[in-house]
Amino acid sequence: MTVLVGYASAHGSTREIAERIAARLAERGVGAETASLDAVGDAGGYDAYVLGSAVHGMAWLPEATGFVHAHRELLADRPVWIFSVGMPAALRGPWKPMAAKEEPKVTEEVLADLSPREHAMFSGVVAPEHLPGAGRAVFRAMGLRYGDYRDWEAVDAFADTVARSLRPASGHP
């Protein structure tokens, strides 16, 4: 059993989450390889897939949606989990309710091409250099804060769910 933990990352936090998922799967006895979705050689060489993307403009990055679209027939026949890395944890005050509305919008295009077993929405890292000047001004005006909002326990729990699904009879936790 080999799982592709594929990702599309703009600034690295989605890549680091994918690496964490792959490491956790390996700890649980599931073979996993991590790769950028625009660099996957033989997409058919895997038994299962965990695919993730950074979220920009309420959508997955083009290389992620492109991979899903190009391989939708292959992915329809194998177990698939997806994750998105946005900024729901950075939302504060009156903006906090927007977090619940983000997930359906983010997954809309991806779900048109596949039916994953589960989708996880994680928060990533936001730094001033990740935003254009106007974006920094809006970010500050909304009262948001820069920082690393990744919840590693949630990432591990998601990976554990994947591992249990792929190795239900194993002795691994």
Automatic annotation (TrEMBL):
Organism superkingdom: Bacteria
Q: Which InterPro entries match?
A: Flavodoxin/NO_synth, Flavodoxin_dom, Flavoprotein-like_sf
Which SUPFAM superfamilies does the entry link to? Flavoproteins (SSF52218)
Task: Give the Flavodoxin-like domain ranges.
Answer: 3-173
Q: Name one Pfam family in it.
A: Flavodoxin_5
Name of the protein in its database record = Flavodoxin domain-containing protein
This chain's source organism reads Streptomyces chitinivorans
